[in-house]
Amino acid sequence: MLFRFSDVQKSYGVQDVLRGTTFQINAGEHVGLVGRNGAGKSTVFRLVSGEETADRGDVVRARNVRLGLLNQHVHFEAGSTVHESALAAFGRLQQIEHEMHELEHRMA
Question: Any idea where the domains of the chain sit in the sequence?
């Protein structure tokens, strides 16, 4: 199990975005999330990432999961590739890994 939603509810004011949402995503699965504007797609990602919390229910993420999100309204650098832009979501993680490799080299 990578992610699990159990009876999740999320509202913004009087607008219920998610009600009783339950699903699980397992390792190796490929999932597409589609729906009309306001259906809760972005909310699901904000809940999975921990950026927001559910009003009710449980959102569980496996401990070993790394998650990188690109905002849907992001400004991309002119001349950058899609791959480079996607990697930008992992900028902090890449920095930490680089620092770890430098420390390993110094300790050797």
Answer: 1-65, 68-108
